[in-house]
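Reviewers of the previous submission asked for a worked example of the structure-prediction workflow described in the proposal, so we include one complete record here. The input consisted solely of the amino acid sequence. No template or homolog information was supplied to the procedure at any stage.
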Amino acid sequence: MEGRATASTPAALPYYVAFSQLLGLTLVAMTGAWLGLYRGGIAWESDLQFNVHPLCMAIGLIFLQGDALLVYRVFRNEAKRTTKVLHGLLHVFALIIALVGLVAVFDYHRKKGYADLYSLHSWCGILVFVLYFVQWLVGFSFFLFPGASFSLRSRYRASHVFFGATIFLLSVGTALLGLKEALLFKLGRAKYSLFEPEGVLANVLGLLLACFGGVVLYILTRPDWKRPSQAEEQALSMDFKTLTEGDSPSSQ
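From that input alone, the workflow returned the following structure tokens.
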């Protein structure tokens, strides 16, 4: 039996994907270094519980969310169902890790008697988490759960892609707000303006966050880098639509 035809990978795409992973892993490592060097490390049952929050958000809502968005660009020739499952699972892992980060900061505030949800960072953070959860829930219902009709999936697909990129961008912006807030709380404007080592490291971390977000969004918005539709997927889709009102293999 003849092998399945595969689409060629754009020459520059692997380099951009590799660069995005280098940026993402570096920002996660630098977040850990910042917390270890200047914030005492991480522990759940101590004053260091708060530090769980920024690390979890960097891993979940930044790195893993970005990688989940890139799945359809990286896995160009794998079965569409397999790619969907991987896309959904990465988002699940990101949600779980982000939830741990939220529990950590609320529990820390409760123990210390601090107020909750008064800052712009906290408002944006709750908005991002709620939108992310709703986006995943609706995406699962439309694209993985077999009950949604072919026409509904086709109409919602563009909105799903748009809101996915928007929520990722909001996540990066919220992380930058939180980073700035953490620096001002500890260093104050006077020390921060004197190029304290922690402030310099955190500024570099902020640049990594912005660069990672920019590279991921650039990869997503290149139309010639979208996952191509496979011929057999097109044929199966038409049969499935006729029989069950199933999914279409249109590129994401």
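The chain has a mean pLDDT of 89. We consider this example representative of the routine output the project will generate in years two and three.
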